[in-house]
UniProtKB/TrEMBL annotation:
Database matches in SMART domains: YaeQ (SM01322)
Coiled-coil annotated residue ranges, if any: none
Organism expressing this protein natively: Geobacter benzoatilyticus
Matches recorded under Pfam families: YaeQ (PF07152)
Membrane-spanning parts: none
Protein name in the entry: YaeQ family protein
């Protein structure tokens, strides 16, 4: 018998000063049994960092033909494809062919190996942005994860300030490829 997904209720007060976005975000997000808390946190951070109106979580890990988060147009075209983690470069190249824009929050324990193996294969993809955050930042947030939580997330001058349970953490957004811009 398969284990059920764990449901999280999320509230994020987003202040992206760099892009002039100020929103109250609410979501109910499912964490697949094979997904780590760190990957769930990375998906939520990617949602905030790349936020645009109508951005939606997909079926996630269970749907291999969908990203973690996306923005689709009225005609069904994928306007923005967002991944979190360390996907294969072939998956990112395919996404770039079929989407207007692709963004990746590269995160995981093997990030430096992933950089060496995959970043060079992504050259020439003009619609791709790859960023990373300090893994210790993600790990600390994963340790603080509860089934229902509120984050206050401020992004300014390429730095993320995140307040949860009265503690404020900060990390720089490391742009590895492309640029962090409004769509």
């Amino acid at each position: 018998m398969a284990l059920p997904s764990t449901i999280y209720k999320v509230s994020i007060q987003l202040s992206d000063v760099d892009r002039g976005i100020y929103e109250s975000l609410q979501a109910t997000v499912a964490k697949h049994p094979s997904e780590t808390n760190e990957r769930l946190v990375a998906r939520l951070l990617a949602w905030g960092i790349f936020y645009e109106a109508d951005l939606a979580f997909t079926k996630g890990i269970c749907a291999t033909d969908e990203p973690d988060i996306w923005l689709t147009g009225p005609d069904g075209r994928v306007m923005l494809w967002i991944e979190a983690g360390l996907p294969d470069s072939d998956r990112i190249v395919r996404a770039c062919r079929h989407s207007e824009r692709v963004a990746l929050l590269a995160s995981g324990k093997a990030l430096s190996n992933w950089d060496q193996q995959h970043l060079s294969k992504l050259g020439g993809l003009s619609n791709l942005t790859v960023v990373s955050l300090e893994q210790l930042f993600i790990n600390r947030l994963a340790d603080m994860l509860e089934r229902s939580f509120d984050w206050s997330m401020t992004i300014t001058e390429g730095t993320v300030y995140l307040t949860v349970n009265g503690d404020t953490l900060e990390t720089s957004i490391n742009v590895k490829y492309g640029t962090l811009t409004v769509g």
